[in-house]
Every structure is written in structure tokens, then in C-alpha cells.
Amino acid sequence: MSLSIRLAESGWSPVRPELAKAPGVIAFEVEDTGIGIPESQRSAIFEAFRAGAAGGAHYGGTGLGLSICRQLTRLLGGEIRVESTPGKGSRFTLYLPLGAAAKARPKMAVRAPLLYAPPPAEGATQQPAKRVEGLSGRKVLIIDDDIRNIFALAGALEEHGIQVVDAESGKAGLDLLKRETDIDAVLMDIMMPDLDGFDSIRLIRGLKQFGNLPIIAVTARAMKGDREKCIEAGATDYISKPVNVSHLLSLLKAWLVH
Q1: For residue 116, how many C-alpha atoms fall within 13 Å in the half-sphere facing its CB?
Q2: Measured between alpha carbons, how far is 169 from 167 in angstroms, rounded to an integer?
Q3: If DSSP codes are grouped into helix, strand and coil, which group holds residue 56?
């Protein structure tokens, strides 16, 4: 594998005005000699949770790396391009604008951490969390419009052997539930645009096959009465952000392990 960095005058698509108007563009090229990516799979590899999408190969990890890279690149006004020859290797090129165009991009909002774990007691050492009995092999759907939240939750759950799938809207989550009938539980973000978590839960509960599906509302709203509102909408349980991982695992165990 090799990495090269250069100033670029072309190579990006014409739909990126930030690059076309920038006083300069820097290109980062990563090239490997791996299995390559068939043309039919080159768009799929940038989708969240598509690890091993290239040619049916299987790799570890969540399959979020390229998805996050693409979103961060767009926030910076840039673009990622991929060239590949099956059996010979691939080249990924990241184009980023330099100068005024880059500074003009809006800053990414800074949010409180999604996950929280209590610190070890004084004098104790931090030990890796043990897998919660009964959760390994379970399948959980995360519905959240922020890929960073999905990434954080998925990483925590997968450490305990839980399989994770995701959707970035309530409608997409409902469609996924209809397609994948082996989902054991749903983690539902409440504060989403268009169709919020309350209405998404109501739509899911409106279908008979999901009447007993555990749905845990996950929200930054921690005002008095919010838990009751979630339960009234049809949620099975409620947890606030930042999420205490141990608490979340306890809730999943309570609703999934009988």
C-alpha cells in the first residue's frame, strides 16, 4: 500500500463547486494491490454497514469507515473518488479545497458524547467489559439520522457480539423491519427531522407483527415527563444520552433474555 499527496488541477467531478472555485486543491491518494472492487460494487462500499461489500469478500469491522469518510469529506467541501481493477488493486483519491473555499464551509456542530461509561473506582484498573450473557448473536436495529451516533452505538454493541443494522430515518427503519424479519430490538432516536421518533414508533406499533418488538427510545431529551411520552407513543423502554453502555445492555438483556 502507498500514500501520495499532491496539488491537483483536475480529477474531481464537476458537481463539486467548492473544488472548482477553490484557489487550490490537495489530493491524497491511497493505492493498494488487493483484490480490487468490481464496478457494480463501487457505490455500495460507501454505504454504512457494508463491510465486505466488494465482490463478496468478508472483512472485520462495522463497515462504517468509508461511509464516515465520505460524510466528513462532504462537510469539508471535498470528494472521494475510487478507481479499481479486480484482481490488481484499488486507488482512493481524496480531494480537498485549500484556502478561502475551505474556510467558508460551515463548521460541524459539536455535540456531547453519545456514550458514557462510569470511571473505575479509585485505585482500580479499567477492565474490558464482559459480554452480557444471552445477547451475543442478537440483531439490533439502530434508527438515527446522525451517522456518528450510529457508529458509537454500533461499536459498543458489537463488542458484546450483537449484530447491528441501521437506518437514517423512521421510514427507512420501517422498510428495513419489513424486509429483515429477524430483528430482535430497535434503538430509536427521538429527535429526527421529518418523521420523529414518536411518530416512527407509532407507525411500527401500527403493524401487528411488531406489537411485541422491544423498542428502546434513545434521546438527548431528559426533561420531566419525556420517558412517559416515549412509553405512551409505544416505546418499550427509554434511555437518555449520553448513553450509559452498561445500562443499555441491561435494558436489552431485560427485554430479550427470558
Answers
A1: 11
A2: 6
A3: helix
Cβ partners under 8 Å of residue 215, min gap 6 = 185, 186, 188, 201, 204, 205, 234, 235, 236
- Answering whether pTM is above 0.70, one says no
- The answer to whether 143 and 173 are in contact (CB under 8 A) is yes
Residues 94/11, Cβ–Cβ less than 8 Å: no
CATH of span 139-256: 3.40.50.2300
∠ CA 16-19-24, nearest 5°, is: 175
**Is the domain covering 2-102 a CATH 3.30.565.10 domain?**
yes
Q: Checking DSSP bridges between strand 185-189 and strand 215-219, what pairing results, if any? A: parallel
pLDDT digit string, tens, across residues 140-172: 999 998 887 888 888 888 888 899 888 889 999
* CA–CA–CA angle 117, 241, 215 (5° rounding): 105
Dihedral pair phi/psi, residue 178, rounded to 5°: -70, -30
C-alpha cell at position 17: 463547486
Predicted confidence at residue 119, as pLDDT, reads 54
Cis preceding-peptide flag for 106 (omega within 30 of 0): no
Question: Where in the chain are the domains?
Answer: 2-102, 139-256
